[in-house]
Amino acid sequence: xxxKKKKRVILxxxxxxxxxxxxxxxxxxxxxxxxxxxxxLINDKVIxxxxxxxxxxxxxxxxQVTAVDADVIAFVQGADExxxxxxxxxxxxxxxxxxxxxxxxxxxxxxQIEDAKNFLRQAGAxxxxxxxxxxxxxxxxxxxxxxxx
Length: 149
Fold this sequence. Notes:
By secondary structure, this protein is α/β, with parallel strands linked by helices. Helices cover 28% and strands 18% of the residues. The chain has a single domain (9-97, 124-146), classed as P-loop containing nucleotide triphosphate hydrolases (Rossmann fold, 3-Layer(aba) Sandwich).
């Protein structure tokens, strides 16, 4: 996997959606809570963004500007969230392929997971992955997606 060219992805989601924890899992780091305060580039392939950039309307422009450096836009939705921050058609503002990643599937019922997947599809995610960093599930397909064919 290390010799293959990977797509650069930007992770967009509300605070506590699991963006940073997912990065820690995929980098084989110990899982520990870490509040992302600024945009961070991880291994030159993942752009991790603070949840406030999505939550605060006046900061959303920073997501659009930062997304220019990404190949893929990833909307991250915690399976245990009631509701979503992604409006229908949200992906249209980026003009790039958008995917959805449901995190924390271990904390949610099947209905909550389906609701999260539907929120992401309505936002414009072309493909949706369901993951759990705690259980280590759903990452094989996601990692494969990021590798160039």
